[in-house]
Amino acid sequence: MAQRPPILLIDAPSLYFRAYFGIPESAARAADGSPVNAVRGFLDMLASLIRTRRPDRMVCAMDHDWRPDWRVALLPSYKAHRVAPEGGEVVPDTLSPQVPLILEVLDAVGIAHVGATGYEADDVLGTLSVTQPAPVEVVSGDRDLFQLVDDARPVRLLYVGRGVAKLDDCDDAAVRARYGVPADRYADFAALRGDPSDGLPGVAGVGEKTAARLVERYGDIAGILAALDEPNSGFAPGLRTKLAAARDYLAVAPQVVRVALDVPLPELATELPTAPADPDRLLELAAEWNLAGSARRLVDALAQRS
């Protein structure tokens, strides 16, 4: 029996940030001069993904809490460098107004979007990846989501670090080839290595190769911490000292890096339409915001599925 088409789970913030920085504001403005570069780029990315991956379902995950209190309580440095002086995330002034417009267009087209109070888009994606009928394809430029890859379901990560046109279609073998660890150990590996963009310090002096070797030998961070208490566990003296100095960090870091898989989410209409849900509203938005080309490409991509 032929496998059903995949559901595409879209990391919306990852894609619209990339669109914003990838398209000059001067090249995409509404009649009143407002930039719409993130909206146009995001819609074109969705159209491209629909054409090339041929999904029958799609959900765009949103950040309702980009820096959840429960992660900050575990690790105060988590994303601390991205907090604006007045609070909230540092986001370009001309990007913030485009996000509600993206949601309006998604509603008019009929593409589901969802977020959850107290959770990041990553957590929404993680929960959907284990609750939606497979096959599942997660679309993101966030390396943390390599941990969701699961050949058994299957769940793949379409990694767009080089852009949607050059996405990397990643299964477990691809994660192993890239990082030297299986996908289900990526969170432990990432905690050891650290990630400055998320305020994760990692273990001083431990890079990707050492982190991968540690995970391969001891299984996970819990295994590493247990081995630290064994004098004959095989650590080089310098490495043992580095890990011991980071013990407090290592005790909490995996919980910070690990994506939640149990976010409470509403029932979602995930089926992709073959025509806009509200064509009149879509026409209004396209005319008001100078989005006709991008809207048409998205509509055409949907129609090709019929």
Structural notes for this entry:
The structure is a single chain. With 306 residues, the chain is an alpha/beta fold. It is built from 13 helices and six strands. It has a six-stranded mixed beta sheet. The radius of gyration is 21 Å and the shape is globular. It starts with 6 loop residues before the first strand and ends with a helix. The mean pLDDT is 95. Residues 3-273 form the 5'-3' exonuclease domain. This is 5'-3' exonuclease. 5'-3' exonuclease acting preferentially on double-stranded DNA.
List the helices and strands and how they pair.
Layout: E1 7-11, H1 12-22, H2 37-53, E2 57-61, H3 69-74, H4 98-109, E3 112-114, H5 121-131, E4 136-140, E5 155-159, E6 168-170, H6 172-179, H7 186-193, H8 208-218, H9 221-228, H10 237-245, H11 247-257, H12 279-289, H13 292-303
Parallel strand pairs: 1-2, 1-4, 2-3, 4-5
Antiparallel strand pairs: 5-6
Strand line-up in the sheet with most strands: 3-2-1-4-5-6
Low-confidence region ranges: none
Percent strand: 5-15%
- Alpha carbon gap, first and last residue: 21 Å
- Taken in chain order, the helices and strands follow as EHHEHHEHEEEHHHHHHHH
Number of continuous helical runs? 13
- Content-based structural category: alpha/beta
In round numbers, the mean pLDDT is 95
Radius of gyration: 21 Å
Number of DSSP E strands: 6
Biggest beta-sheet profile: 6 strands, mixed
Task: Give the % helix.
Answer: 40-55%
Looking at the structure, what is the overall shape?
globular
Domain 5'-3' exonuclease: 3-273
InterPro entries: 5-3_exonucl_a-hlix_arch_N, 5-3_exonuclease, 5-3_exonuclease_C_sf, DNA_polI_H3TH, FEN, HhH2, PIN-like_dom_sf
Protein name: 5'-3' exonuclease
Pfam families: 5_3_exonuc, 5_3_exonuc_N
